[in-house]
Design goal:
Shape: globular
Helix content: 25-40%
Radius of gyration: 18 Å
Distance between the termini: 42 Å
Order of helices and strands: EHEHEHEHEHEHEEEHEEHE
Number of helices: 8
Number of strands: 12
Strand order of the largest sheet: 7-6-5-4-3-2-1-10
């Protein structure tokens, strides 16, 4: 139905011939490149490995730390972030990639909520600049919905951020829709969705669990997804090793493919892990 893929680039899911061959053998077709820093990343080598193994370089997740905060109230910081994002756009545009996932904020929580309107203003200004620059390079900016008190945590606010430029698109993260109904969020942003981050959660926080291990209604979600005419990749953003919030064995690439096929067919999902009880916002409290 949709191409099945995974966010890769770390030690667990390396972008090596062996790593991508294992993904392909399991039935995957695409990856999102997702690493902490791209300063020394060999983009051309990644392209060669992808071509050799038959895995598509579907998207790239931009830098994920506060020095790339487009919502910063410091104009100099905004300028530095834009410069770095443009550098990244250039790099992967050169190898034929066309989707970059960007967060509307990297401000650590909690932050002063009285600053929210001004932070949204700064983020929109930066997003407009990046959308226009990306367009000149054949690259679409995919704005990710975020959880908790982050910017873009509701349908209304995410649509407001997208209004900065009609070229902006969406990376929909199912695991982040903590406030508004997930299916309604999908329908609201609709055909602006060009890529995904697939994982499950509880009703407290994002968890990055395998679908079926959390509370999301995946039959309802896939119906909503099908209704918007999406035809891209189904990218899992989950580590193979279990996080400290769930009792689970190490996942395999085949687990993801089986899970995706069950979701697409609206079947009951095979549940592998069991969340620990009494979870707090960030860390588990084990009895």
């Amino acid at each position: 139905m949709y191409k099945i893929g995974i966010a890769a680039g770390g030690a667990q899911k390396p972008i090596t011939v062996e790593g991508l061959e294992a993904m392909k053998k399991a039935g995957m077709d695409a990856i999102e490149i997702s690493i902490g820093s791209y300063e020394n990343f060999d983009f051309k080598k990644a392209k060669q490995i992808a071509e050799q193994t038959g895995i598509e370089l579907w998207s790239i997740h931009s830098h994920m730390h506060r020095s790339f905060d487009i919502s910063s109230l410091d104009n100099d910081s905004n300028k530095r972030a834009i410069k770095e994002f443009c550098w990244l756009i250039d790099k992967f545009s050169d190898i034929g990639m066309d989707k970059i996932v960007i967060h509307p904020t990297h401000t650590p929580e909690p932050f002063d909520q009285s600053e929210r309107p001004e932070k949204i203003k700064h983020a929109k200004e930066c997003l407009n600049t990046l959308a226009e620059y990306g367009y000149t390079k054949g690259v679409q900016i995919a704005l990710e919905d975020l959880p908790r008190t982050c910017l873009g945590n509701t349908i209304e606010e995410h649509l407001d951020l997208l209004s900065a430029n009609d070229k902006l698109r969406v990376c929909f993260d199912f695991n982040h829709s903590l406030i508004d109904d997930t299916a309604e969020f999908i329908k609201a942003v609709g055909d602006k969705i060009i890529t995904t981050h697939v994982s499950d959660r509880d009703n407290i926080n994002e968890r990055h669990w395998l679908p079926g291990e959390g509370v999301l209604d995946w039959k309802k979600i896939i119906d909503a997804f099908n209704s918007i005419g999406y035809n891209g990749a189904w990218i899992y953003e989950i580590d193979l090793e279990a996080p400290p919030t769930i009792d689970r064995r190490m996942l395999t690439y085949s687990d993801f493919v089986t899970n995706a096929k069950q979701i697409f067919a609206k079947q009951d999902l095979t549940v592998i892990g069991t969340p620990y009880p009494n979870l707090g916002l960030w860390e588990p409290i084990k009895e």
